[in-house]
């Protein structure tokens, strides 16, 4: 029963993520190299190289394809990104838990 409440809480938080779009400015840590240098005065060595080599995001800027500039599409993209992140994280935790316990039932 405790797991069910936890999943419900995670789902609720994922659905509420578009509230962050109401905040002014940018999200902490989602800066490019130039913004990081502007805000902190320096950027870690190699960050620019890593930024060039990164993979493309499934929903760049949290927007769904075909909904660019549309606030509803951005909200849906944010929710889908949150659900994808929660799902991948939960899946990794479950797999690691099973591996640690020797593949037994939770």
Give a written overview of the molecule:
Helix content is 56%, strand content 0%. The protein is mainly alpha-helical. The chain has one domain. The mean pLDDT is 78.
Which helices and strands appear, and what pairs or packs with what?
Blueprint: H1 2-15, H2 33-40, H3 47-53, H4 71-100
> Largest sheet, if any?
none
Backbone shape: globular
The number of helices is 4
- Portion in strands: under 5%
Structural domain tally: 1
Calculate the terminal CA-CA distance, rounded to whole Å: 13 Å
List segments where confidence is low: pLDDT < 50 over at least 5 consecutive residues: none
What structural class results from the helix and strand content?
Answer: mainly alpha
> What is the helix content?
55-70%
Please state the average pLDDT score: 78
Rg from Cα: 18 Å
Number of strands: 0
Elements, N to C (H/E)? HHHH
What descriptors fit this protein?
106 residues; mainly alpha; 4 helices; 56% helix
What is the compact description of this entry?
The chain is an all-alpha fold.
